[in-house]
Amino acid sequence: KLKVAALRMYACCVEKTDFEEFFNKCQMPDTLNSWFLVAQLHVWMCLVRLKQEGRTGKYMCRYIVHCLWEDVEQRGKVMGINSTILKEDLKRMAENFYAALFGYDEGILCDDRVLASALWRNLLNRNCDDPRHLELLVEYVRKQVQHLDALSGEDLLLTGEVSWRPLVESNARSILKPLGPVYNDEGL
């Protein structure tokens, strides 16, 4: 059951994410590597949430990462990438993957500058001329992590179903800056 839930969560990372919007808004080339970088970001956000669920969550984390590597390899083969080149690419992606996870973890625990730096290094490959792209990405990650934190742990472990807020929203900060408390007439 956990493997099915993990596979479903991985599928949500790659099927419910608008990759084309990321490529366009962040001026990323439409390549296997760009796809991987965006997928990796979404997988990482799921891993952050699942680690809160103890041993069961950590087990799901391992399986989601396994699903990612299986998927990358299959996509490379479908694209007709030479097996030797694909093997080298996978090795490089794996090295970058674990460095990115560390950087994203540090960024989510620190301030927006550290998170922006991690996104610039890992997602944008140090290629970003417009700081508004980084601002958009930092806001996106913060709102997604907060959105995932609000999901029931029991439901996540049973179904693996997650949804994503859009990259661009008219009032994106609404989730980051909650309104003050609302009191009824009795002052409660």
Write up what this structure looks like.
One of its GO terms (biological process) is mitochondrial respiratory chain complex III assembly. It holds the Pfam family Ubiq_cyt_C_chap. Belongs to the CBP3 family. This is UQCC1 factor. Residues 25-160 form the Ubiquinol-cytochrome c chaperone domain. The model is unreliable at 176-183 (pLDDT under 50). The radius of gyration is 18 Å and the shape is globular. The protein has helices spanning 2-15, 19-25, 32-50, 54-78, 83-109, 112-122, 131-149, 153-159. The protein starts with a helix and ends in a 29-residue tail after the last helix. It has one domain (1-174). The protein has 188 residues and is mostly helical. It has 8 helices and no strands.
Largest sheet: none
Run of helices and strands = HHHHHHHH
Poorly predicted ranges: 176-183
Q: What fraction of residues sit in β-strands? A: under 5%
Structural domain tally: 1
Principal-axis shape equals globular
The radius of gyration is 18 Å
Helix count equals 8
> End-to-end distance, in Å?
43 Å
Helix content: 55-70%
Count of β-strands: 0
Average predicted local confidence, pLDDT:
89
Structural class: mainly alpha
Organism: Loxia curvirostra
Family: Belongs to the CBP3 family.
GO cellular component, one term: mitochondrion
Protein name: UQCC1 factor
